[in-house]
Specification:
It is a single chain. By secondary structure, the chain is α/β, with parallel strands linked by helices. The protein is built from 13 helices and 8 strands. Strands 3-2-1-4-5-8-7-6 form an 8-stranded mixed β-sheet. Strand 1, helix 3 (85-91) and strand 2 form a beta-alpha-beta unit. Helix 7 (135-144) runs antiparallel to helix 8 (148-161) and helix 8 packs parallel to helix 10 (201-226). The two termini are 31 Å apart. It binds S-adenosylmethionine. Residues 1, 35, 39, 42, 76-83, 99-101, 104, 126-128, 180-182, 185-186 line the site of S-adenosylmethionine.
């Protein structure tokens, strides 16, 4: 997970991503590279995220109550640091882990026992469709040549096209689909990294927020087409980000909670009211209530790192 639109490269060098870790990558590889670097950075966080993972497990169990225990699909499984993979493997006959980052998937599955691994399938692909369609490559090309107004115009066309990009091959009829803090990661970290040094960042940011919303709706469609009619989705999403950059604070802001903990929805509403700019674009797909009967199950603080926390909202979704 990355900080926000204008951040420098996520390594400690402090330069823009395309002049730093992304410098020698081919245009078509940059989108994937950025996700992989993020997962590389958070790979050691398995123990740090134990409490968060327990809260995700509670959401998963609520969603799985009443469903068959046949097939489960995890979208954006990554390192599996925030997903109770062992519990899912014990509960379901078949567990499919999907992500663009194959190394992270292998690392997550590597923590499972031999019997748990027996039903696990690792599947690499692009939920956003940006890599497969060439859209990410075009964006990187325009950014590398500092063609910022062209990039802003391109994002306006992408906003309309995002829903039409070919969906990944995932199969259908899953009894449980799990998606944890993926919706906000499909576009914002990428455009934030490649356009960090743009002089028209605000214009690009505004167009990017629309693309993010369109891709979030696309995730809603993907969840809907993958889940069985009598199945359910455990959908958790980071609705608010709490860190120094977002709060325009020079020091480290006081954490919302010392570790990942449940938070009362009224406290969340108050946070969103006072700090509306901390709200994450695209966190909750706008098509959710059209596609599903959503039950807002629980909210919690995700103590991501010493410097960053998120408020996560968990839903149990039943397809309409
Ligand atoms: C917040 S992370 C989730 C953390 C992850 N479960 C873990 O424990 O490492 C979001 C995950 O979504 C994946 N992701 C983001 N965009 C994707 C895309 N377009 N296609 C597939 N996976 C994507 C990232 O690679 C990452 O693993």
């Amino acid at each position: 997970m990355t900080e926000r639109m204008s951040q420098p490269c996520s390594c400690i060098a402090g330069r823009a991503f395309l002049q730093c870790c992304g410098k020698s990558a081919a245009d078509r590889d940059v989108y994937r590279l950025l996700l992989c670097l993020g997962n590389d950075a958070s790979r050691p966080f398995y123990n740090r995220w134990t409490r968060h993972r327990e809260l995700v497990r509670e959401l998963v169990d609520r969603a799985a109550a009443g469903t068959r225990r046949g097939r489960c699909l995890v979208l954006g499984a990554g390192n599996g640091n925030d997903i109770p993979l062992g519990h899912l493997a014990d509960t379901f006959t078949e567990l499919t882990l999907f992500d663009l980052d194959e190394t992270a998937l292998a690392a997550g599955a590597g923590r499972l026992t031999a019997p748990q691994k027996a039903g696990v399938r690792l599947l690499a692909g692009d939920l956003a469709g940006l890599a497969a369609s060439g859209a990410a490559e075009t964006i990187v090309h325009l950014a590398r040549h500092s063609r910022w107004p062209d990039l802003a115009r391109y994002l306006l066309t992408l906003r309309r096209k995002a829903g039409l990009l070919p969906p990944p091959e995932l199969g259908r009829g899953y009894d449980l689909v799990v998606s944890v803090c993926v919706a906000t990661q499909l576009f914002v970290p990428f455009i934030g990294a490649v356009a960090a040094h743009s002089p028209i960042r605000d214009r690009i940011h505004a167009a990017a927020a629309d693309v993010t919303r369109a891709l979030s709706n696309r995730l809603g469609e993907i969840m809907h087409r993958s889940v069985a009619p009598a199945g359910a989705v455990a959908f958790a999403t980071d609705i608010l980000e709490w860190n120094a950059a977002r709060l325009s604070s020079s020091g480290v802001p006081a954490p919302l909670a010392p570790d990942s903990e449940k938070i009362d929805p009224t406290a969340v509403e108050e946070l969103l009211r006072v700090h509306s700019h901390l709200r994450n674009a695209g966190a909750v797909p706008e098509n959710l209530t059209r596609l599903f009967t959503p039950v807002h199950a629980m909210d919690w603080v995700w103590a991501f790192s010493d410097r960053k926390q998120y408020v996560v909202r968990g839903f149990v979704l039943h397809p309409r």
